[in-house]
Amino acid sequence: MLFANLAKSDDLLRILKMHRTIPEPLSTSKYSMDQLMDCFVKGAEGSYNKHADFDFLSYFFADLSKVPYPMYHLSTTSIN
């Protein structure tokens, strides 16, 4: 829940453009937001870690989707 509460802050919107090293087994994207989305999807499928589902990220995405740009990012396939 802490992560979801942090999403209420405008300062956390920088996560949409933040770059990280690509974690090969998890994601093919360099963007942190895409990596979180991959973690959420692969967690629901059990393909990344069969002991975790990462469902707490749903609250984070819900809070981010209240703002137009993050909502656009969550509903498209690319951040370009």
Q: Taking all residues together, what is the mean pLDDT?
A: 81
Main pleated-sheet profile? none
Number of discrete helical segments = 4
What is the CA-based Rg, rounded? 12 Å
Distance between the termini: 29 Å
Tally the beta strands: 0
Features:
single chain; 4 helices
Task: Provide a quick synopsis of the model.
The chain has 80 residues and is mainly alpha-helical.
Question: What do you see in this structure?
Answer:
The termini are far apart. The protein is globular and about 30 Å long. It has one domain (about 1-75). It is built from four helices and no strands. It has about 80 residues and is an all-alpha fold.
Topology of helices and strands:
Blueprint: H1 2-6, H2 32-45, H3 57-64, H4 68-74
